């Protein structure tokens, strides 16, 4: 390949994600970590004069782990020889992946414990077991064990199926074949047989089976790329570097003859940190050659090799690997509706107990009254509906299906199907900013150099100035055009000086970054970087004449129409102003201009450099190498060297302003949600000015709303004064920075959160991921309300998992937030439909379904109670066998379950009038008030059916079972029809088919139904009368209520 004119940069700084896991401008969570967690920072390892820069080590996002490796001897640091014996290799954990929850021995005990931990299931188990005691036996045992066994078998089947799928996935991973280098040649072994100390050959697009040290690659430079989206959710490729000594060997087979050993620190969860050494062993009297190893030299398990072929040395296997240690199993979220239903179940038990005691008391506690008490408890056990949880779980599945198949919110995924009702009860929405409210689609809009500035309209002038800097201004510069550009005026400076300054900052921006050009399958060049604003700056540099065409661990190539080289050595650095302001030379414009850009909503980056002499560079290189190979406090030693030699008195080159565009529909969405009564918090790592600007431009802060800002509090007294002043204010928006917020969290937690939860909008800036999660938990704790968190990056995972409802956006920062969330969407605006429509339907439908299932159990128990009271308080079952089982299944289940298709308003009405959502958050659809209303309805209808059956059929008393049961079934079908707001064809079908099944079953159940009797006109008209008496009054009440006191949604529709 013929190289175009380029600038070759020898031995340029190696880079990888431990140095590039950041946003260069206004990086999320950067400042708080700088201010409060300085020890989490490392500096780049500059082995060349160009572009070493500050990098942050980002910790693994997984906040919990089910693996603890520090409690075993195997979790200690290790030194493994290239010629390790089999005995030594076998001391380390096997390389097995096991995600199963159960095994053959533990499956039944654990599942039974989980099921009978639920009050309803435990109650029915005790009732069923009581049937083995002769005095308590009522009817057939199958009628009690049948429903319970059905529920348990369905649940066990689901658990077994899910665990079987986990087993198959584990088996598939454990059986994948890998090539291992041995003295007897290359062997194919399954992943589960890989051991510490093995040499593994990894091909392109192959999953890494264990934690490895990269020894060699097919690239002469010793570099390769990996994809880490299955480990940390990030979509960008990461660069990895081979051990220099091994890369220089003449062949792969030479590795088998190397007499060396690798030291690795103890296993830990942090995927962005590693401390190790490679030691080449010589004769006994020669000091070993030691090369420092860090995360750049690692290939973590479950990452994928994206380029070339690599050979790795296994250092961790099985439970010691980073991937396994970061496998967290967040606690299952339990919805508020489920908690309310559990409480109602306990109330229903008390109702059952009181009803039994009442009948015993009315009978004067005669005879073996305690036996009768238990028999009544068993008779009335249907009051607590065992099928309630099954119906609700099936309903949740329907809601999840409807959400994922909504064409207006495409690619939405329900990852937690147990809490769709929570979407309808959200009071607080906590949102990230970058990538959530904004697109994470960056464009460089401004470049400021103190005495001159360029904006989007005058950027083309910069390429002309570059030509001038290279001595070509004669034919390329247009003075007339320049004179019209007010932003390029320089007082007291020559044009040559201006061009030189522009050249300096453009070169700095073209060199100081972590971007790598990659040729994809279509032979097109794309840029890979850890942050989109890095790519935006490189693309801008390309537009003005400096194109990045090649990069490896040793050099970068820039294509330019100029051919000019220099032997000068420069250290370049760029970063947030809060960091850079302390290490650049004195100036009087940096803070002001950064503030101005932030107020325009731009993400700022400060660019600086330092010229080094040959002696200074050599001194730095020597001292930094000593710090690199240190095994104790390595980061602190590296930081000390960089701070002492490089990071002081830097020459300030300028400030860039990058625009992050708002997501589509953000303004409308925030306005609708605010009108729906949601209190919205924006939690971001950006500076106050930028966050405030975005909050205003996105309409998060409404017009004319007062903004109160709290920042840079330095004492508890100052925090107390601010808090006191806030308590005297009315409705306002609070903007607070992370440092001040932490003071309140540590000292005035209750007072601050009590005030903050009442505000309509809060903007918290410079927040760390930990602070985001802490705020979420505090709001949940103090407000007792439902909290929804939405974000798109790995730094939002903790917040999402801490929320009642976590929503992840699939964005440019990767899929980590999406994978950790309960619901995954592709853009912020989908939140409107998700909450206002699907949340509404899920909550309203489940509430109605739960109450109707409870009513179904209560009414049959009331009929039993009236029957027993009339006939001498005898604890004898009125309905037995197939009738009692069929009542809650084939005779009523389909119509009752069809309520999950009901809707009280159209979707356009729900979205047009978000105020309807406010009623849902009050929890009125399922409350003690509605519960007792249904209790009274059940008492009335059960009593009416039983009493009227006896009154009208006094001459045919032998048929009391068929009479009352038929009226009961018809009553339930009519009650379902009464509750439906919008008919669906499946609802009509379920009613008709269920009625047909009941009529047909009467023919085949002669024990309970006398066919000659039920075909008479007398039977028919009297059943109709009984049914009318039990249900018609409720229709009249419903009509009058809708006529004279309609609910708000009826007024709109």
UniProtKB/TrEMBL annotation:
Locate the compositionally biased regions of type Low complexity.
59-72
Q: Which GO terms describe its cellular component?
A: endosome membrane; plasma membrane; trans-Golgi network
**Gene Ontology biological process terms, A to Z:** endocytosis; phospholipid translocation; retrograde vesicle-mediated transport, Golgi to endoplasmic reticulum
Domain annotation P-type ATPase C-terminal: ranges: 819-1046
Q: Where in the cell is it found?
A: Endosome membrane; Membrane
Positions binding ATP in this chain are 432-434, 534, 574, 603, 684-686, 766, 772, 795-796
Q: Give the EC class as a word.
A: translocase
* Residues annotated as transmembrane: 104-126, 138-157, 347-363, 369-388, 853-873, 879-901, 931-951, 957-980, 992-1013, 1019-1037
Broad class of where this protein is predominantly found = membrane
Q: Does the keyword Cell inner membrane apply?
A: no
> Which keywords has UniProt assigned to this entry?
ATP-binding, Lipid transport, Magnesium, Membrane, Metal-binding, Nucleotide-binding, Translocase, Transmembrane, Transmembrane helix, Transport
Topology of this chain in the membrane: Multi-pass membrane protein
Binding annotation for Mg(2+):
432, 434, 792, 796
According to its UniProt record, which cofactors does this protein need? Answer: Mg(2+)
Residues covered by the P-type ATPase N-terminal domain? 88-140
- Per UniProt, residues of the P-type ATPase A domain are 180-322
Please list where the region (Disordered) is annotated: 19-76
Q: Which reaction does it catalyse?
A: ATP + H2O + phospholipidSide 1 = ADP + phosphate + phospholipidSide 2; a 1,2-diacyl-sn-glycero-3-phosphoethanolamine(out) + ATP + H2O = a 1,2-diacyl-sn-glycero-3-phosphoethanolamine(in) + ADP + phosphate + H(+)
InterPro entries, A to Z: ATPase_P-typ_cyto_dom_N (IPR023299), ATPase_P-typ_P_site (IPR018303), ATPase_P-typ_TM_dom_sf (IPR023298), ATPase_P-typ_transduc_dom_A_sf (IPR008250), ATPase_P-type_domA (IPR059000), HAD-like_sf (IPR036412), HAD_sf (IPR023214), P-type_ATPase_IV (IPR006539)
Q: What is its EC number?
A: 7.6.2.1
Give the molecular function GO annotations. ATP binding; ATP hydrolysis activity; ATPase-coupled intramembrane lipid transporter activity; magnesium ion binding
* One Pfam family recorded for the sequence: E1-E2_ATPase
Report what the protein is called: Phospholipid-transporting ATPase
Q: From what organism does this protein derive? A: Rhizophagus clarus
């Amino acid at each position: 390949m013929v190289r175009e004119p380029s600038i070759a940069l020898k031995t340029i700084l190696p880079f990888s994600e431990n140095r590039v896991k950041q946003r260069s401008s206004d990086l999320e969570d950067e400042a708080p970590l700088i201010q409060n967690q300085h020890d989490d920072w490392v500096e780049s390892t500059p082995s060349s004069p160009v572009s070493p820069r500050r990098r942050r080590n980002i910790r693994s996002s997984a906040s919990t782990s089910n693996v603890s490796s520090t409690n075993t001897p195997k979790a200690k640091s290790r030194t493994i020889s290239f010629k390790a014996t089999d005995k030594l290799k076998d001391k380390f954990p096997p390389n097995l992946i096991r995600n199963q929850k159960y095994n053959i021995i533990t499956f039944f005990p654990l599942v039974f414990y989980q099921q009978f931990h639920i009050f309803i299931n435990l109650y029915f188990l005790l009732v069923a077991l009581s049937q083995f005691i002769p005095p308590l036996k009522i009817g057939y045992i199958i009628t009690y064990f049948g429903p319970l066994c059905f529920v348990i078998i369905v649940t066990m089947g689901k658990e077994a199926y899910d665990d079987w799928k986990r087993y198959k996935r584990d088996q598939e991973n454990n059986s994948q074949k890998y090539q291992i280098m041995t003295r007897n040649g290359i062997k194919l072994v399954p992943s589960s047989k890989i051991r510490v100390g093995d040499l593994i050959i990894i091909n392109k697009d192959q999953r890494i089976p264990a934690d490895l040290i990269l020894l060699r690659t097919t690239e002469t430079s010793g570099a390769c790329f990996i994809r880490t989206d299955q480990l940390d959710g990030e979509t960008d490729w990461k660069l990895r570097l081979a051990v220099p000594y091994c890369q220089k060997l003449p062949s792969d087979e030479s590795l088998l003859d190397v007499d060396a050993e690798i030291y690795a620190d103890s296993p830990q969860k942090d995927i962005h940190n590693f401390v190790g050494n490679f030691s080449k062993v010589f004769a006994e009297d020669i000091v070993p050659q030691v090369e420092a190893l860090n995360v750049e030299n690692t290939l973590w398990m479950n990452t994928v090799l994206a380029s070339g072929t690599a050979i790795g040395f296994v250092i961790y296997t099985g439970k010691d690997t980073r991937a396994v240690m970061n496998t967290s199993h967040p606690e299952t979220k339990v919805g508020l509706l489920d908690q309310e239903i559990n409480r109602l179940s306990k109330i229903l038990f008390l109702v059952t107990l009181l009803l039994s005691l009442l009948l015993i008391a009315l009978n004067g506690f005669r005879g073996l009254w305690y036996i009768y008490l238990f028999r009544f408890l068993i008779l009335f056990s249907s009051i607590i509906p065992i099928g309630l949880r099954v119906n609700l779980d099936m309903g949740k599945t329907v809601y999840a299906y409807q959400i994922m198949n909504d064409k207006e919110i495409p690619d939405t995924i329900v990852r937690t199907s147990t809490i769709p009702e929570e979407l309808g009860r959200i009071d607080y929405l906590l949102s990230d900013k970058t990538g959530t409210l904004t697109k994470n689609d960056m464009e460089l809009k401004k470049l400021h150099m103190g005495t001159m500035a360029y904006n989007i309209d005058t950027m083309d002038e910069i390429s002309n100035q570059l030509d001038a800097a290279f001595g070509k201004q004669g034919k390329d510069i247009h003075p007339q055009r320049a004179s019209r550009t007010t932003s390029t005026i320089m007082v007291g400076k020559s044009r040559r000086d201006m061009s030189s300054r522009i050249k300096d900052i453009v070169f700095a921006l073209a060199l100081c970054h972590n971007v790598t050009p990659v040729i994809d399958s279509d032979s097109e060049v794309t840029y890979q970087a850890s942050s989109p604003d890095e790519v935006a700056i490189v693309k801008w540099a390309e537009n003005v004449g400096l194109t990045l065409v090649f990069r490896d661990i040793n050099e970068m190539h820039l294509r330019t129409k100029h051919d000019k080289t220099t032997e000068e050595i420069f250290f370049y650095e760029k970063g947030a102003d809060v960091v850079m302001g302390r290490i650049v030379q004195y100036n009087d414009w940096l803070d002001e201009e950064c503030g101005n850009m932030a107020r325009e909503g731009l993400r700022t980056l400060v660019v600086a450099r330092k010229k080094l002499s040959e002696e200074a560079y050599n001194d730095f290189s020597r001292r930094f190498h000593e710090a690199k190979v240190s095994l104790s406090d390595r980061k602190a030693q590296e930081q000390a060297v960089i701070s002492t030699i490089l990071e002081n008195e830097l020459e300030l080159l300028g400030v860039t302003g990058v625009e992050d565009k708002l997501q589509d529909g953000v303004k409308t969405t925030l306005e609708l949600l605010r009108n729906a009564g949601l209190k919205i918090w924006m939690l971001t790592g950006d500076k106050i000015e930028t966050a405030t600007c975005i909050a205003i431009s996105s309409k998060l802060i409404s017009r004319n709303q007062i903004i109160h800002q709290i920042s840079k509090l330095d004492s508890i007294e100052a925090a107390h004064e601010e808090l006191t002043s806030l308590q005297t204010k009315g409705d306002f928006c609070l903007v607070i920075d992370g440092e001040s917020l932490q003071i309140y969290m540590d000292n005035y937690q209750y007072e601050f959160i009590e005030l903050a939860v009442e505000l309509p909008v809060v903007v918290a800036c410079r927040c760390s991921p930990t602070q985001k999660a802490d705020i979420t938990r505090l709001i949940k704790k103090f407000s007792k309300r439902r909290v929804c968190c939405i974000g798109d990056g790995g730094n939002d995972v903790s917040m999402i998992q801490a929320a009642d409802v976590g929503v992840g956006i699939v964005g440019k920062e990767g899929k980590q937030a999406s994978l950790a969330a309960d619901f995954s969407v592709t853009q912020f605006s989908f939140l409107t439909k998700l909450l206002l429509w699907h949340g509404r339907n899920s909550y309203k439908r489940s509430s109605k379904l739960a109450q109707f299932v409870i009513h179904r159990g209560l009414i049959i128990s009331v009929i039993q109670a009236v029957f027993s009271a009339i006939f001498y308080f005898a604890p004898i079952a009125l309905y037995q066998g197939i009738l009692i089982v069929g009542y809650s299944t084939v005779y009523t289940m389909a119509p009752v379950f069809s309520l999950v298709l009901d809707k009280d308003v159209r979707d356009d009405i729900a979205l047009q009038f978000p105020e309807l959502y406010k009623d849902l958050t009050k929890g009125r659809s399922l409350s003690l008030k509605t519960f007792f209303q249904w209790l009274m309805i059940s008492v009335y209808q059960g009593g009416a059916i039983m009493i009227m059956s006896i009154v009208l059929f006094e001459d045919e008393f032998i048929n009391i079972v068929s009479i009352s049961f038929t009226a009961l079934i018809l009553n339930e079908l009519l009650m379902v029809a009464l509750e439906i707001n919008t008919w669906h064809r499946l609802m009509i079908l379920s009613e008709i088919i269920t009625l047909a099944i009941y009529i047909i079953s009467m023919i085949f159940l002669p024990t309970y139904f006398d066919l000659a009797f039920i075909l008479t006109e007398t039977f028919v008209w009297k059943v109709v009368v009984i049914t009318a008496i039990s249900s018609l009054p409720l229709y009249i009440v419903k009509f009058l209520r809708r006529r004279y006191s309609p609910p708000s949604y009826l007024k709109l529709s």
